[in-house]
Each structure stands twice: as structure tokens, then as C-alpha cells.
Specification:
single chain, 308 residues, five-stranded mixed sheet, 14 helices, 10 strands, 44% helix, globular
Length: 308
């Protein structure tokens, strides 16, 4: 039997997790292989990149899509569990669970089209159709891969210690060009009596100015309100600092962002979990390049030239 597509194994994935227990990725793959009679040879087939098995990749995307729909969750790295919503879906969904079925969930539609308008779209409008050009398909797939990677990055960060997160923030800022050399970045992290400041980093290699950092590894679903930003601004004023960065795995409320924007004597920049993940991807912190595609176009000028 051919290796099933990622969207052909949704129901089987939910059934494996129907006992509401946590199951490891390897166990899930073994059970899926058994259910679909995937041979050992088929399990060894590689993607064109040669860096991952096709079967492994498809099971992973099946889990990712179900997680984005809220039907399963990942309480630990490489482990999954059915959610109450997933239990309800398994009991009431049609025999075939596909992307059309998953598109009834706002979180899944936003994942398919992460442009703020997808969440308001009708389910039938959020599923890609045959009217898409190859470039549209590539662009959409790229956005989905980036969104899944962002989610994975935040999940990994939440499994680490607060001190790891503080050092990760410093590493990211260094990659972005702050702090000068790695051996002399001018960074102070986690000092006792820091009065609400988790780190200090040079703004440039010569150290003309300092940026004071507060790094909070909080639940990605948590909303950070204005009071927290007010406390941070107070800490900056107490240090005589002119610039501050509040960076977190959580989210900021509208009131928090508005308050930060109103600060003039003390410049405050807010970086939430989604922006943090994007910056980590852009500056290659905690990620590595799996495959690179070059898309070329016809050079009409070449054919218009007189080659004689």
C-alpha cells in the first residue's frame, strides 16, 4: 500500500490518541504504519532533500494540522494527547476527517492563511482550491511551514528554564548585531537586585548606548497588560536608562502596546512570542536550513538581444 497523504490519516491519528493518554511520536508512527500497512521499505523512502523520510514527514504534518485545529495538543516535546475538542470531533465527525472538516475551526483557518482575514472567512473559502497558481501554492506552503516552525520554537522554549530563555534573548540580539563581539558583548543577565532588569546589552560595537532587557518566559496564551509595562518603564527610569526591550513568549494586550508607544523620554520596544519566533528564524537561532529552492524566471532581455 502506498504511503498515505498527511490528510488521509487524521481519523487514525485521533483514534490512536482516543485513550486520552500521552503518546510519543515514534509510537504514533508505528501504529499508523500498521494501520495503513506501510512497509519497512516505504518507511525508509526519503524526500527529495534526502534529509527526512516521506512517511515521517507526513505523520508529522498530520499531527501539526490536528494541533492547529485544536484537536490534539503537545504537552511535551515529541508527544501528543487528544484534547476535549478532539474527543468530541472523534465522536461526531464524519468517517472521513479532512482539511474541509478542520476548516470549521478558526485556529486552523488562520494557520492556512495567516493574514488576519482568514479567521473571518467561511470554511469553504479557507481550503486551497485548484484556481491557485503554482506560485500561490508555494507561497501558502511556505507560510504554513513558517507558522509550524514558530509554534515548535515556542514549544521548545517553554520546555527550558527561565535562565536559558534569558541567554537565548542575548544570543538573538547578538545575531542581530547588538552587543559587539560575542566575547565582549557587555551583557549582564540575572543579577541579584536587578530591580526588574534581566539584562543589559550594548546597542552597537562601540557601546555608545545601552539597551535594558526584561525577558519573560510566560505561557504563549497569556496576555501581558499595561501594569507590567508600567513596572518595566519604572525600572528603566530607576536605572537612568533611555531604551528598553521587553521580550516574551506571551502576548501583549492592546493597552500595553498603546502605553509603550506613548513613551517618549524612555523608548520601549515590545517583542511578543510570534515576533520572537520570526526573529529566531530570520537570524538562525535554534533553527537550521533543511532545503533551499531557487525559483527562476525567463530572461526575456536575453532573447531580445542580437547575439550575432
Amino acid at each position: 500500500m502506498a504511503i498515505p497523504k498527511y490528510d488521509e490519516m487524521y481519523r487514525e491519528l485521533l483514534e490512536i490518541l482516543a485513550d486520552l493518554q500521552v503518546h510519543r511520536s515514534g509510537e504514533i508512527r508505528n501504529q499508523i504504519a500498521s494501520k495503513f500497512h506501510v512497509s519497512d521499505a516505504e518507511r525508509r523512502e526519503l524526500l527529495p532533500s534526502g534529509r527526512q523520510a516521506v512517511f515521517h514527514n507526513r505523520v508529522g504534518w498530520g499531527c501539526t494540522y490536528l494541533k492547529k485545529a485544536g484537536l490534539i495538543e503537545s504537552p511535551a516535546r515529541g508527544a501528543f494527547r487528544l484534547t476535549p475538542l478532539g474527543k468530541q470531533a472523534l465522536a461526531n465527525a464524519p468517517q472521513r476527517i479532512d482539511n474541509q472538516y478542520l476548516s470549521q475551526f478558526d485556529s486552523f483557518r488562520k494557520f492556512l492563511q495567516p493574514d488576519d482575514t482568514a479567521a473571518a472567512a467561511e470554511p469553504s473559502e479557507s481550503v486551497p482550491d485548484s484556481g491557485q497558481s503554482p506560485q500561490d501554492v508555494l507561497d501558502t506552503a511556505y507560510q504554513q511551514i513558517q507558522a509550524a516552525l514558530s509554534d515548535d520554537l515556542l514549544g521548545e522554549i517553554m520546555g527550558q528554564s527561565p535562565s536559558f530563555f534569558e541567554h537565548l534573548v542575548v544570543k538573538l540580539l547578538e545575531r542581530m548585531g547588538y552587543g559587539g563581539s560575542l566575547s565582549d558583548a557587555g551583557v549582564v543577565v540575572g543579577q541579584s537586585g536587578d530591580e526588574g532588569i534581566d539584562g543589559i546589552i550594548r546597542e552597537d560595537k562601540l557601546g555608545f548606548d545601552m539597551i535594558y532587557i526584561q525577558a519573560k518566559r510566560w505561557d504563549p496564551d497569556k496576555g501581558i497588560g499595561r501594569p507590567e509595562i508600567q513596572k518595566f518603564v519604572g525600572a528603566l527610569v530607576g536605572q537612568g536608562a533611555g531604551k528598553g526591550l521587553f521580550i516574551t513568549t506571551a502576548q501583549f494586550t492592546r493597552e500595553a502596546r498603546e502605553y509603550a508607544q506613548k513613551q517618549h523620554t524612555t523608548k520601549v520596544v515590545l517583542v511578543d512570542g510570534q515576533m520572537l519566533a520570526k526573529l529566531m528564524i530570520e537570524y538562525n537561532v535554534g533553527v537550521s536550513t533543511e532545503i533551499t529552492y531557487e525559483i527562476k524566471r525567463l530572461d526575456r532581455d536575453f532573447f531580445a538581444d542580437d547575439l550575432d
